[in-house]
Amino acid sequence: MLGRLSTRRSGPFSTSLVSPTPGLVVGYYKDKCNSDIEDIIEVLVTEEFDKDPTILPALLRLQFHDCFVHGCDASLLIDGASTEKTAGSNLSVRGYELIEKLKAAIEEECPGVVSCADIVVVATKVVIKLGGGLDFPVETGRKDGLVSNAADVDLPSPSMTVAQSAAVFAAKGFSVEEMVVLLGYHAVGITHCQFIQDRIYDGTSQFDPEMDTNLRLRLRQVCPRGPPADNSILLNQDPSNNNTLNNGFYGQLINNRGVLHLDQLLSRDPSTANIVSELAQNSTLFNIRTAQVMIKLQAVEVLTGDEGEIRNVCGRFN
């Protein structure tokens, strides 16, 4: 049974695993529902992915933004005037409609049993596989949270230094190496002009003179000087990437083609440069580590047993 990633390391990386997260098991719903819940999710997520492959970065972001605030408890899904969903850093998060669609389908087959938090976890695992990542076993058994406040949302910023970001990740139990691995999911992400404008024009606070010249010119076409446009930019500017999870993203950073300030710093900071180099050179290592660290992310501060609830609808408390 695949458990959480061990923090024990052999050299810069570790592939050892420890016992499963307390309260979570692989196949938690097998004896609780007549239908295979994970199969239902896989079929519906695959249908969505075939129509819109960008659901991959959308669910990766939704999962991360949920787990980093009160743990992986689907608190981000709650609708309301002052819920997590309304926080500034969450306004562009998407994928909610798919999660509600999955919840409705599962409620028909197995009412009142499967949490929204577990649906998010399984759906994210499916899109990772569809995007070229490993098909790893998912631990389930989470309960949905009972709190969702915009004021509680405090996520890593793309303008942070490596040390600042590492401190945020450390507060959730992640090492510097695990932070670099998680940020590697930016291989399929997007950003907006407001987050990169200061990197591409002389005289601005975070102008990057080392950025690849061709990349800078391309980004200036998308984000003209002046008030930031709301145009979107692929975080992985490799034209051959095409919504595929692979280690080529780290090669882009080494070649000074990082779009976000923090991403680019990963290849330059002494604490992370060697990690970026190893991941860039070893696609197998990248696949293994992204799966392991995702398993660890999905176990952050989970609610199990008598904690939390099983929501009837993901967007509101019972």
Short description:
The protein has 318 residues and is mainly alpha-helical. The protein has helices spanning 37-51, 55-67, 96-109, 116-130, 162-171, 176-183, 197-200, 213-222, 248-254, 261-266, 273-281, 283-297; strands spanning 25-26, 139-140, 190-192, 232-234. Helix 1 crosses helix 4, helix 2 packs across helix 4 and helix 3 (96-109) crosses helix 4 (116-130).
How would you portray this structure in words?
The protein has 318 residues and is mainly α. It folds into two domains: 25-154, Peroxidase, domain 1; 162-292, Peroxidase, domain 2, CATH 1.10.420. The chain has twelve helices and four strands; from the N terminus they run βααααβααβααβαααα. It has helices at residues 37-51, 55-67, 96-109, 116-130, 162-171, 176-183, 197-200, 213-222, 248-254, 261-266, 273-281, 283-297; strands at residues 25-26, 139-140, 190-192, 232-234. The chain has a two-stranded antiparallel sheet with strand order 1-2. It has a two-stranded antiparallel sheet with strand order 3-4. Helix 2 (55-67) packs across helix 4 and helix 9 packs across helix 11. The longest helix is centred in the first third of the chain and has 15 residues, at 37-51. The protein is globular. The two termini are 33 Å apart.
